[in-house]
Protein backbone atom coordinates (compact mmCIF):
# COMPACT_ATOMS: atom_id res chain seq x y z
CA UNK A 1 0.00 0.00 0.00
CA UNK A 2 1.52 3.39 -1.01
CA UNK A 3 2.64 5.59 1.80
CA UNK A 4 0.81 8.99 2.33
CA UNK A 5 3.96 10.92 1.53
CA UNK A 6 4.31 9.26 -1.86
CA UNK A 7 0.65 9.98 -2.66
CA UNK A 8 1.08 13.69 -1.82
CA UNK A 9 4.20 13.91 -3.98
CA UNK A 10 2.41 12.27 -6.91
CA UNK A 11 -0.50 14.67 -6.62
CA UNK A 12 1.79 17.68 -6.57
CA UNK A 13 3.56 16.45 -9.72
CA UNK A 14 0.24 15.86 -11.45
CA UNK A 15 -1.04 19.37 -10.64
CA UNK A 16 2.24 20.86 -11.79
CA UNK A 17 1.90 19.14 -15.17
CA UNK A 18 -1.48 20.79 -15.85
CA UNK A 19 -1.73 23.89 -17.98
CA UNK A 20 -1.24 27.18 -16.07
CA UNK A 21 -4.92 28.09 -16.50
CA UNK A 22 -6.03 24.89 -14.80
CA UNK A 23 -3.33 24.85 -12.13
CA UNK A 24 -3.74 28.48 -11.05
CA UNK A 25 -5.39 28.99 -7.63
CA UNK A 26 -7.38 32.24 -7.34
CA UNK A 27 -5.71 34.86 -5.14
CA UNK A 28 -7.31 35.63 -1.80
CA UNK A 29 -8.97 39.06 -1.49
CA UNK A 30 -6.50 41.76 -0.53
CA UNK A 31 -7.46 44.05 2.33
CA UNK A 32 -6.06 47.44 3.23
CA UNK A 33 -6.94 49.94 5.96
CA UNK A 34 -9.39 52.74 5.25
CA UNK A 35 -7.61 55.80 6.62
CA UNK A 36 -9.80 58.83 7.27
CA UNK A 37 -7.55 60.76 9.60
CA UNK A 38 -4.68 60.74 12.01
CA UNK A 39 -4.72 60.43 15.80
CA UNK A 40 -2.18 62.27 17.93
CA UNK A 41 -1.35 61.76 21.59
CA UNK A 42 -0.58 65.17 22.99
CA UNK A 43 1.28 65.51 26.31
CA UNK A 44 -0.72 67.73 28.66
CA UNK A 45 0.71 69.28 31.80
CA UNK A 46 -2.65 70.96 32.42
CA UNK A 47 -4.68 67.75 32.33
CA UNK A 48 -1.90 65.72 34.01
CA UNK A 49 -2.16 63.01 31.34
CA UNK A 50 -1.70 62.56 27.59
CA UNK A 51 -4.71 63.65 25.56
CA UNK A 52 -5.96 62.37 22.20
CA UNK A 53 -6.51 64.74 19.28
CA UNK A 54 -7.90 63.41 16.01
CA UNK A 55 -7.31 65.17 12.72
CA UNK A 56 -9.01 65.03 9.32
CA UNK A 57 -7.37 66.90 6.48
CA UNK A 58 -9.22 67.76 3.27
CA UNK A 59 -8.37 65.87 0.07
CA UNK A 60 -5.42 67.45 -1.67
CA UNK A 61 -4.04 69.00 1.51
CA UNK A 62 -0.61 67.45 1.02
CA UNK A 63 -0.12 69.02 -2.40
CA UNK A 64 -2.19 72.21 -2.30
CA UNK A 65 0.08 74.46 -0.25
CA UNK A 66 -2.96 76.47 0.82
CA UNK A 67 -4.25 77.24 4.30
CA UNK A 68 -7.58 76.14 5.71
CA UNK A 69 -10.14 77.10 8.36
CA UNK A 70 -10.42 74.75 11.32
CA UNK A 71 -13.48 73.16 12.88
CA UNK A 72 -12.87 72.00 16.46
CA UNK A 73 -15.21 69.24 17.60
CA UNK A 74 -15.72 68.56 21.30
CA UNK A 75 -16.37 64.93 22.16
CA UNK A 76 -14.16 64.37 19.14
CA UNK A 77 -12.87 60.91 19.96
CA UNK A 78 -12.82 58.06 17.47
CA UNK A 79 -15.67 56.43 19.39
CA UNK A 80 -17.43 59.77 19.86
CA UNK A 81 -18.30 62.34 17.16
CA UNK A 82 -15.14 62.53 15.07
CA UNK A 83 -16.18 60.14 12.32
CA UNK A 84 -19.57 61.56 11.49
CA UNK A 85 -18.45 65.19 11.56
CA UNK A 86 -15.34 64.54 9.45
CA UNK A 87 -17.66 62.61 7.12
CA UNK A 88 -19.80 65.71 6.72
CA UNK A 89 -16.70 67.75 5.91
CA UNK A 90 -15.69 65.20 3.28
CA UNK A 91 -19.20 65.18 1.84
CA UNK A 92 -19.10 68.96 1.59
CA UNK A 93 -15.85 68.74 -0.37
CA UNK A 94 -17.12 66.00 -2.70
CA UNK A 95 -20.51 67.64 -3.33
CA UNK A 96 -19.11 71.16 -3.48
CA UNK A 97 -21.46 72.41 -0.75
CA UNK A 98 -18.78 73.63 1.67
CA UNK A 99 -15.24 74.90 1.55
CA UNK A 100 -12.39 72.56 2.39
CA UNK A 101 -11.71 72.61 6.12
CA UNK A 102 -9.55 70.89 8.71
CA UNK A 103 -11.50 68.96 11.34
CA UNK A 104 -9.94 68.58 14.79
CA UNK A 105 -11.57 66.16 17.22
CA UNK A 106 -10.88 66.97 20.87
CA UNK A 107 -11.43 63.75 22.80
CA UNK A 108 -13.18 63.93 26.15
CA UNK A 109 -12.82 61.34 28.90
CA UNK A 110 -14.72 62.52 31.97
CA UNK A 111 -17.34 64.69 30.31
CA UNK A 112 -18.85 66.25 33.43
CA UNK A 113 -15.37 67.06 34.66
CA UNK A 114 -14.15 68.56 31.39
CA UNK A 115 -17.27 70.09 29.83
CA UNK A 116 -19.38 71.28 32.78
CA UNK A 117 -18.74 74.40 34.82
CA UNK A 118 -18.43 74.21 38.59
CA UNK A 119 -21.71 73.68 40.43
CA UNK A 120 -22.35 74.18 44.13
CA UNK A 121 -25.53 72.10 43.98
CA UNK A 122 -25.13 69.34 46.60
CA UNK A 123 -27.10 66.87 44.48
CA UNK A 124 -24.87 67.40 41.43
CA UNK A 125 -21.74 67.21 43.56
CA UNK A 126 -22.93 63.95 45.12
CA UNK A 127 -23.90 62.46 41.76
CA UNK A 128 -20.81 63.69 39.90
CA UNK A 129 -17.97 64.26 42.37
CA UNK A 130 -15.44 65.07 39.64
CA UNK A 131 -17.67 67.69 37.98
CA UNK A 132 -16.94 71.28 37.19
CA UNK A 133 -13.44 71.55 35.68
CA UNK A 134 -14.42 73.18 32.37
CA UNK A 135 -12.09 76.12 33.05
CA UNK A 136 -9.14 73.73 33.25
CA UNK A 137 -10.18 71.98 30.04
CA UNK A 138 -10.46 75.37 28.32
CA UNK A 139 -6.88 76.11 29.40
CA UNK A 140 -5.88 72.82 27.80
CA UNK A 141 -7.48 73.98 24.55
CA UNK A 142 -6.02 77.47 24.74
CA UNK A 143 -2.48 76.65 25.84
CA UNK A 144 -1.88 73.16 24.42
CA UNK A 145 -4.32 71.89 21.80
CA UNK A 146 -4.80 75.02 19.69
CA UNK A 147 -1.07 75.93 19.60
CA UNK A 148 -0.28 72.34 18.53
CA UNK A 149 -2.78 72.51 15.69
CA UNK A 150 -1.65 75.93 14.51
CA UNK A 151 2.02 74.93 14.58
CA UNK A 152 1.50 71.56 12.87
CA UNK A 153 -1.05 72.26 10.15
CA UNK A 154 -1.63 74.98 7.56
CA UNK A 155 -4.42 76.91 9.25
CA UNK A 156 -5.73 80.24 7.99
CA UNK A 157 -6.63 81.76 11.37
CA UNK A 158 -10.38 81.00 11.19
CA UNK A 159 -11.50 78.67 13.97
CA UNK A 160 -14.95 77.33 14.89
CA UNK A 161 -15.97 75.42 18.03
CA UNK A 162 -18.88 72.97 17.87
CA UNK A 163 -20.49 70.62 20.36
CA UNK A 164 -23.74 68.95 21.39
CA UNK A 165 -25.33 68.28 24.79
CA UNK A 166 -22.69 68.78 27.53
CA UNK A 167 -20.24 69.76 24.80
CA UNK A 168 -22.81 72.35 23.72
CA UNK A 169 -22.83 73.68 27.29
CA UNK A 170 -19.05 74.06 27.04
CA UNK A 171 -19.45 75.88 23.72
CA UNK A 172 -21.89 78.38 25.24
CA UNK A 173 -19.72 78.91 28.32
CA UNK A 174 -16.65 79.51 26.15
CA UNK A 175 -18.58 81.92 23.95
CA UNK A 176 -19.87 83.89 26.93
CA UNK A 177 -16.67 83.95 28.97
CA UNK A 178 -13.83 83.85 26.40
CA UNK A 179 -15.46 84.91 23.15
CA UNK A 180 -12.21 85.79 21.39
CA UNK A 181 -10.91 82.22 21.68
CA UNK A 182 -12.80 81.19 18.52
CA UNK A 183 -14.34 83.08 15.65
CA UNK A 184 -17.65 81.23 15.57
CA UNK A 185 -19.59 78.89 17.86
CA UNK A 186 -22.14 76.13 17.29
CA UNK A 187 -24.12 74.80 20.27
CA UNK A 188 -26.56 71.98 19.49
CA UNK A 189 -29.09 71.10 22.21
CA UNK A 190 -26.68 72.45 24.87
CA UNK A 191 -27.18 71.14 28.42
CA UNK A 192 -27.93 74.57 29.81
CA UNK A 193 -30.04 72.92 32.50
CA UNK A 194 -26.78 72.28 34.36
CA UNK A 195 -26.66 73.98 37.77
CA UNK A 196 -30.31 75.11 37.46
CA UNK A 197 -29.53 77.08 34.30
CA UNK A 198 -27.14 79.43 36.09
CA UNK A 199 -24.98 80.06 33.01
CA UNK A 200 -27.97 81.12 30.90
CA UNK A 201 -29.14 83.59 33.55
CA UNK A 202 -25.70 85.26 33.44
CA UNK A 203 -25.79 85.72 29.66
CA UNK A 204 -26.77 89.40 29.53
CA UNK A 205 -24.12 90.39 32.07
CA UNK A 206 -21.38 88.41 30.33
CA UNK A 207 -22.39 89.70 26.90
CA UNK A 208 -22.10 93.29 28.13
CA UNK A 209 -18.39 92.68 28.76
CA UNK A 210 -17.66 91.16 25.35
CA UNK A 211 -14.74 92.65 23.42
CA UNK A 212 -15.39 94.06 19.99
CA UNK A 213 -15.03 91.76 17.03
CA UNK A 214 -17.33 90.05 14.54
CA UNK A 215 -18.46 86.60 15.64
CA UNK A 216 -21.20 84.12 14.87
CA UNK A 217 -23.21 81.97 17.25
CA UNK A 218 -25.51 79.20 16.01
CA UNK A 219 -27.98 77.81 18.54
CA UNK A 220 -30.49 75.02 18.09
CA UNK A 221 -32.40 72.67 20.33
CA UNK A 222 -34.42 69.50 19.86
CA UNK A 223 -37.80 68.74 21.37
CA UNK A 224 -36.28 68.72 24.85
CA UNK A 225 -38.85 70.57 26.92
CA UNK A 226 -38.54 71.09 30.68
CA UNK A 227 -35.46 72.68 32.17
CA UNK A 228 -33.48 72.31 28.93
CA UNK A 229 -35.93 74.57 27.09
CA UNK A 230 -36.34 76.96 30.02
CA UNK A 231 -32.60 77.56 30.18
CA UNK A 232 -32.37 77.99 26.40
CA UNK A 233 -35.16 80.58 26.57
CA UNK A 234 -33.17 82.45 29.21
CA UNK A 235 -30.08 82.46 27.02
CA UNK A 236 -32.05 83.68 24.01
CA UNK A 237 -33.57 86.44 26.14
CA UNK A 238 -30.10 87.54 27.19
CA UNK A 239 -28.92 87.58 23.58
CA UNK A 240 -31.99 89.53 22.50
CA UNK A 241 -31.35 92.30 25.01
CA UNK A 242 -27.55 92.40 25.24
CA UNK A 243 -25.93 90.90 22.14
CA UNK A 244 -23.11 93.08 20.79
CA UNK A 245 -23.84 94.81 17.49
CA UNK A 246 -21.16 92.82 15.67
CA UNK A 247 -22.45 89.43 16.84
CA UNK A 248 -24.47 87.48 14.28
CA UNK A 249 -26.52 84.89 16.11
CA UNK A 250 -29.30 82.54 15.12
CA UNK A 251 -31.64 80.38 17.13
CA UNK A 252 -33.63 77.76 15.25
CA UNK A 253 -35.41 75.12 17.34
CA UNK A 254 -35.88 71.69 15.78
CA UNK A 255 -39.02 70.31 17.42
CA UNK A 256 -39.13 67.36 15.03
CA UNK A 257 -35.82 66.09 16.41
CA UNK A 258 -34.88 64.45 19.70
CA UNK A 259 -31.73 64.79 21.76
CA UNK A 260 -30.47 61.59 20.11
CA UNK A 261 -31.20 62.60 16.50
CA UNK A 262 -30.49 66.32 16.22
CA UNK A 263 -26.72 66.44 15.90
CA UNK A 264 -25.95 65.16 12.39
CA UNK A 265 -28.42 67.28 10.45
CA UNK A 266 -27.82 70.41 12.53
CA UNK A 267 -24.06 70.02 12.10
CA UNK A 268 -24.40 69.71 8.33
CA UNK A 269 -26.42 72.94 8.13
CA UNK A 270 -23.93 74.70 10.40
CA UNK A 271 -21.04 73.71 8.15
CA UNK A 272 -22.89 75.00 5.10
CA UNK A 273 -23.61 78.27 6.89
CA UNK A 274 -20.12 78.88 8.26
CA UNK A 275 -18.05 77.49 5.38
CA UNK A 276 -20.00 78.36 2.22
CA UNK A 277 -18.46 77.88 -1.18
CA UNK A 278 -17.59 81.32 -2.61
CA UNK A 279 -19.92 82.45 -5.35
CA UNK A 280 -18.43 82.08 -8.81
CA UNK A 281 -17.93 85.34 -10.65
CA UNK A 282 -19.94 85.41 -13.92
CA UNK A 283 -17.80 85.20 -17.01
CA UNK A 284 -17.44 88.44 -18.95
CA UNK A 285 -17.57 88.62 -22.71
CA UNK A 286 -14.20 89.21 -24.36
Architecture overview:
This protein is an alpha/beta fold. It has helices at residues 4-16, 20-23, 61-64, 82-95, 111-114, 122-127, 134-152, 166-177, 194-201, 203-208, 226-242, 262-274; strands at residues 38-42, 51-56, 68-74, 102-106, 155-164, 184-188, 215-220, 247-251. The chain contains twelve helices and eight strands. Strands 1-2-4-3-5-6-7-8 form an eight-stranded mixed β-sheet, with helices on both faces. The longest helix is centred in the middle third of the chain and has 19 residues, at 134-152. The N and C termini lie far apart (94 Å). Residues 4-15 have low confidence and may be disordered. Residues 1-23 form the signal peptide. This is Esterase.
Question: Which labels suit this protein?
Answer:
12 helices, alpha/beta, Rossmann fold, Esterase, Esterase-like, 8-stranded mixed beta sheet, 286 residues
Amino acid sequence: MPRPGLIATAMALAIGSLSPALAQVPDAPVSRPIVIGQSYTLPSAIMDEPREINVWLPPGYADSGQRYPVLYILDGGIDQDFHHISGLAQLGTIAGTTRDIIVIGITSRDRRNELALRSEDPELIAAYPTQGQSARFRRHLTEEALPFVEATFRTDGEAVLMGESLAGLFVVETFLKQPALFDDYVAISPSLWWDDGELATQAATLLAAHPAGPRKLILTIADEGGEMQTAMDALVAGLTTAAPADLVWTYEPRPHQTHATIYHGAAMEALRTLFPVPATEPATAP
